[in-house]
Design a protein that fits this description.
Elements (H helix, E strand, L loop, with lengths): L2 H10 L8 H11 L5 E7 L2 E6 L5 E3 L9 E3 L6 E6 L8 E11 L7 E11 L10 E11 L2 E10 L2 E6 L15 E3 L1 H8 L20 H9 L2 H7 L3 H8 L15 H5 L3 H10 L5 H9 L9 H7 L7 H7 L5 H12 L10 H17 L7 H4 L4 H31 L4 E2 L3 E5 L3 H11 L7 H6 L3 E7 L8 E6 L2 E6 L8 H25 L1
The structure holds zinc ion.
């Protein structure tokens, strides 16, 4: 037996090998309750009915009509009437069911089985049985949660372990996905899952498998929910950010919330008003001498949304209290051109600090970290960075010139040559209203070649721009993307023949 088979074998032991009456009752009397029909047909003028629930045949007391609802006189079920002769081409009722039970081997564990269940009326309607296809098995035990999905491959069935525990469901407008909450209550009784708060999270989960998986891993969930921190459990369940606020493996409330007693008291006072960013910043400011109160943090980061990545960068150079002070100062600047929200300030400030880094400014200097007018300083550093980047790009473009000189070509009136600088590319783009300026980086890196066609009489005036890649002309652009005149086209043809065709030959030989 392979390791995988052994693991499955161990896992599979937890599950009953049959579909018990508890499940059958639930499916028949709840999930597929609507799948009960009385088929009517006339024999020698007398109408007979056949109930698909109790499988009884009877004479109708008063005539029944196709598609009406009626009670079966034999079993009392509410049934839909169908003509014997009606087309049953699509008559299949189905649903997806998740049902919980206790493990057969571990008294602390619970299991769940997911089934696709259906009743198929397309054949002989007197022989319809509810069918069960197992689609997944779930095991939840303290410290461990596992899920296996069931597949049919070439009529052979197989269970495959899933990387993580997740929900399966039928997806359509009419999909009928159901989980027996009664089954959960029975399954968890007397197990560590009994007080897990599984039914207290109103997030969009219908089968609770993710909850029980989370709880198996982190019983902390119960603590947090009971203390009113449902939000964090929900965030963890549905992959929203929690910014590392919660120490999920913490053994007591102090280590779970990374706070001491009096701090926790403060947090509990604000209850659900505290969002993960605010809580995280409160935690991160613990050791600061200028630590703001929780109220101040809540106030400052009320409407900022997710600014954690900005804050992380900024806090390399300062702390939460100073950030709050600085944001207040910037928002109250007298100038017209300033930032209007704390979020805008944080974004601009982070960008400004990144630029300062690029420019190798002294970021130990408070005057640099906290410029008195952030807007103006950021505008300045942006320009300086652009300039610096252009210088580097220019250096690379210059280094390519010698290699690119083989593309220089001229005839009586026109000349073609490689672009010489970022400025030239930007200017070319501006004058011709094309986007060649954005090609500077790629051109500098050698990913592409930008050639300029100029009239010999006006060698400095942009005329046409050509992009060459792999010795092939990719595009020819004139003023506002106009196509080349016949004169230019002829010239380009000549250039191609002399310069590109030759290079192609060379490549051919080299290979
Ligand atoms: Zn009946």
């Amino acid at each position: 037996m392979s390791q995988k088979d052994k693991a499955f074998h161990r896992f599979y032991k937890h599950f009953p090998k049959v579909i018990g009456n508890n499940i059958r009752d639930y499916v028949t009397n709840h999930v597929l309750k609507g799948s009960r029909y009385i088929f009517i047909r006339r024999v020698k003028g007398i109408q007979f009915g056949y109930c698909t629930h109790c499988n009884e045949r009877f004479m109708t007391s008063s005539p029944l009509k196709h598609n009406e609802m009626t009670d079966c006189p034999k079993c009392g079920s509410r049934c839909e009437v169908k003509n014997h002769g009606t087309s049953r081409k699509y008559m299949v009722d189905n649903a997806f069911v998740v049902y919980y039970e206790k493990s057969r081997v571990n008294p602390d564990a619970i299991i769940a089985r997911a089934f696709r269940v259906f009743r198929d009326y397309r054949g002989d309607y007197t022989r319809v049985e509810t069918e069960y296809n197992t689609t997944a098995l779930y095991l939840f035990e303290p410290g461990n949660a596992e899920m296996y999905e069931h597949y049919w491959w070439h009529k052979e069935d197989r269970y495959v372990k899933c990387a993580s525990v997740h929900s399966l469901e039928l997806k359509s407008q009419y999909a009928n996905n159901q989980c027996s909450e009664e089954s959960i209550k029975k399954a968890i009784e007397g197990t560590p899952y009994q007080y897990s708060t599984w039914d207290q999270h109103d997030q969009p989960q219908w089968d609770y498998v993710k909850f029980f998986a989370l709880y198996s891993k982190y019983p902390t969930v119960e603590y947090l929910t009971k203390l009113g921190f449902k939000y964090f459990v929900g965030a963890k369940l549905f992959d929203h950010k929690t910014f590392n606020c919660i120490n999920w493996t913490g053994k007591n409330i102090n280590s779970i919330l990374r706070l001491n007693k009096s701090e926790i008291k403060e947090v509990l006072q604000y209850g659900t008003q505290v969002n993960p960013i605010q809580l995280r910043l409160y935690q991160l400011s613990r050791k600061d001498s200028n630590r703001p109160s929780l109220a101040q943090i809540i106030e400052a980061f009320k409407g900022t949304g997710d600014v954690m990545s900005e804050m992380k960068y900024i806090m390399k150079y300062t702390n939460v209290g100073k950030v709050i002070n600085y944001m207040k100062k910037q928002i109250n600047r007298p100038e017209k051109r300033k930032y209007r929200t704390y979020k805008d300030i944080l974004t601009a400030w982070r960008d400004y600090l990144i630029e300062c880094n690029t420019l190798e400014f002294d970021l130990f200097n408070e005057r640099i970290i906290f410029p008195s007018n952030l807007f103006a300083s950021h505008q300045k550093t942006m320009k300086m960075v652009t300039h610096k980047q252009n210088e580097e790009t220019d250096r690379k473009i210059k280094n390519r010139q010698k290699q690119l000189s083989r593309y220089v070509f001229e005839d009586a009136d026109l000349i073609i040559r490689p672009a010489r600088s970022t400025f030239e590319l930007i200017n070319e783009g501006k004058e011709l209203s094309i986007c060649v300026g954005t090609y500077a980086d790629r051109y500098a890196k050698g990913d592409t070649i930008i050639l300029l066609v100029r009239k010999k009489q006006e060698p400095d005036k942009p005329f046409y721009t050509i992009e060459v890649r792999n010795d092939e002309i990719r595009q020819v652009q004139g003023l506002k993307h106009c196509s080349p005149t016949s004169e230019v086209r002829e010239f380009i043809e000549k250039f191609k023949k002399t310069k590109l065709a030759k290079s192609n030959e060379k490549v051919g030989i080299a290979v």
